[in-house]
Each structure stands twice: as C-alpha cells, then as structure tokens.
Specification:
Strand order of the largest sheet: 1-3-2
Distance between the termini: 93 Å
Low-confidence stretches: 257-265, 322-345
Structural class: mainly alpha
Helix content: 25-40%
Number of strands: 3
Mean pLDDT: 79
Shape: elongated
Largest sheet: 3 strands, antiparallel
Amino acid sequence: MKPLHGGKLRARRIPLGFNKRPDKMVRAKLIGAALAAVAVVAWSGAALFQRGLGAKRFSPGEVAEVHATWDAKCIACHEPFKSVRDGALEVSFAGLTAADDNRCIKCHNGAPHHATEIPSEVGSCSRCHYDHQGRLANISRPANVVCTSCHADMSRHMRTAEGFPAITPPLAETVTEFESDHPPFRSISTDPGQVRFNHDLHMTAGLNVGFSDRQLASKDRAKYEMKDGLVQMACGDCHGTDGEAQDIELARAATARSGSGIPARFGNGDYMVPVRYEDHCQACHPLSYQAGQPLDEMDVVPHRLIPSEIRGYLASVFGGGEEVNSSEPSEDKVDLMAPLTGPLGSPPAESEYAELQEAISGAEKHLRNVCAQCHILDVSGGGAAGGLEPVLPSQIPEVWYRFARFDHTAHRAVTCQECHADAYPESERTSSVNTDVMIPDRDICLKCHSSEGAGKDASGASLGGARHDCVECHRYHGGDYPLHGAGSKVRSAGKMQRVRDFLLGAESD
C-alpha cells in the first residue's frame, strides 16, 4: 500500500513560483522601506530651504547658553567636513585634518598657558571646551583629566631649555586631585609685608585707646563704637571687599597708587580692598609731630611723604610759611627745601635759624617714634641731612593667592574666624607679629572642598561636598599671570567686528 503522504506529494502542494509572488510580510517591508526613503529625502530637502532650522536638524545637541545666538549658524564655528577637535576619532585614526582655532579666536582669544609648555602638546580649543551639551552646560569647566594629563607627570610635559629649568620645589611633580596630592599653597609660605601690626592687640575686647569718641572725627565716630572709653574692633573696620559701595573709591585709589594688584572684573566683591592709612589707621594713629596734644587738636604731617618732603613741610610750618595740606605729594610742588627768607628776601637771623632747626629736629625725633610704631625704618643709609630715615616699602600683598583665584563673595556666609582664626585673641596661636601668615592653606579649604564626608572638623564631624575640581580655583589661560581676568588684553577678540558680522559669524567673512 502506497503512503498517503510522500515527499513528492507534499512538494506538489507548493507552487513553483512562490518566490516571485510576495506575501503580506514582504509587501509590508517594501512599503516601509519606501516610506522611510521618501521621509529622509523630504527631511533633507526641507533643510535646504530652511536656513536656520535646517542647520539645527544636523546638530548633535543644543549649544551652551553663551553660544545660543549661533545655535543655527553652524558655519560660525565649523568648517565643512572638518572636525573642530584635534583628538576626534576621524582625526586620530582616519588621518583627516582638524579645523584650526581661528573661528574661536576671532571672538575670544586664549592666552598661552605657561612659557614652559611644549607647543606640540597644546590642543585645540574644543579639546577642553566641548559644546553641544545643552543650554545649561558650562563649557569653561573641563574635566580634571584635561589638566592631569600633564600635571600627573609634569617633568615630561615641560620644556627644559635655557631659562626653563627642570621642576624644583615648591612646584609639584605630581598632582591628580585636590583632596589627595595637591601641595600646600606656595604663595602664602611667608609674609613679605614690612609693616608692623599686632592682630592680637587690635582685636582685644575692650581696647583702651586713651581718648573719647568725642575727639574722633565725625566719619570715624560711627565706625568705631566706643563704650566707656573702650573700643571693640572687628575685621570689617579695616577689611572690606571691592564690591562694597563705600569701599569702591578706596579700592580705586589704592589700585591707582600701587599700579596693579586688583584683578580684572574689579568691583564684584572677589577681593579685599588694600588697607589705606587715611581710611583705616589715621583715626587712632595720627602722624603728630608734637607730643602732649589732644587727639582732636594734633598737628600732623601728611602720610606718604619722603624724609626730605617731611623736613620741608616742617620748615614751612615752623618758619611761618604756607602749610602743605595734600596727603599726595605733587610733582609740581614748590621746593620746600629752598632756603627760607625774611620779609624782603633776606635770610633769617642766625638765632632764628638755629631755633628753626631745633624745632624741626625735635619734630623729626618725635615723628621717628610715631612712624616706627608701624613702619620699619631703613637705617642703612642714615637720615636725610641728619633727619628722618626712609621707611621700607610696605609690600603687603594685595592678592595673596598668586597662582589661583578666590572669591570672597562666594564665601560671604562663612565667618572670618573660620579661615583666619589666628587673627582672634582666643586662638591658641593668635598673631602678634606681622610675619605671621593668616591666609588659609589647603587644610582649611578641604573642610568644604572635598568629597562629601571626606572633610572633618575639630570634633570629627563629616564635612565636604563642595566642588574641588581643578578649574574651581585655577585658570588654564594665562597661567604665568593668573590674575588676568576675562577682560585682560591677552584675552581680547582676535578680530573686531561690526554687530552684523559678529552675529552672522563666518558667513560674513
């Protein structure tokens, strides 16, 4: 008996042309592929007729807020078929050429990092500043790895040509993280200042100054609140940021006098205004040249006069001439050292001259003691014509962290004592001499600027959690001059443009 179901019988059930007649699944695939192709062509074609929106179709993401104006103007930053990053895969492995930085530099230049950098290791702008990460991205804060790629082994990434020696202390050979192997701050190792000051004395509660508040000038009376003839000074009596309205003019005057020091973006409260005698010292320490006078009746000489000018000032006062009231010596000031003359141009009598010299010498002797309370006298060359010795330059740093930036405004909610404990009498190491450095070192910063839970206070409580990446305190550009701000000349635009050209980007070139 023949089998009911054989191979040939089963094969007859399958039409020989089945492969030429598509089924529902195949037809669905073909229709889907055709629709996708039409959509791609339509999407690409529409981009050709939509100038702004078309460019955004090919963008990998929104640019940062500072570049939002050019979000749809790719040509402002990109060159056709060239990567903006020299470290991109297509550049590293495919051998393609990366675009240069000219389109970045046209708007904001970048100063060199250090004179010792190896030029071949300096990457493109976008190696550190990677855009298209969203509107809120801060592209000026590269990851630590960008810095540690060199600073983890500095000896291999510095020129050692003449004038650029190999790494020597205190420059660190290896730095990978702030909380692990960052060295102590080298710019605060010593105090170069040459002005005597005793924080312990001035911050003592109930300081007896020897005069009443009625003898103070009106501007100082409200500043130094006295009770029963005693004064309690506070940090703010001498120290104020450049963002405080009442101190802005003082900061400008101090900066103009010193020639530099306050960084760019001056006036936003980052830095402290330099201490100025007329505003912070004169109320209690007048430059009197005669002993025994009440505070409000003292005869004083202006501050910042050199010994010859002081002698001339005293000669003018004791000789009956016109007093010099300006505290700022003028270049065209009358020569006060010229011989004094009588009513008709005749020299004074010998006895009068002797009395005059005696009065001047007595005043200079008193002034020597007054000046020496704060200043260090230069006794190496003797006094001017037997008079006062010159004082050594004060050299008080206007900015202590010379290799990093610091923002007092960001720390305004923290008490001064947290970082400057030795300025207070209750400290075990309270400062009584000017050589003490009371600027916080790394150990103080680590209380906040470390991984959460890594910082510890005196009681052992866990602290930390604040940012502690490299760019929190350091700038890359202008590493040899870290106080240069964004407004400095070395960071100016590579090309000055009209508003239209600026907004159109490279399209207007």
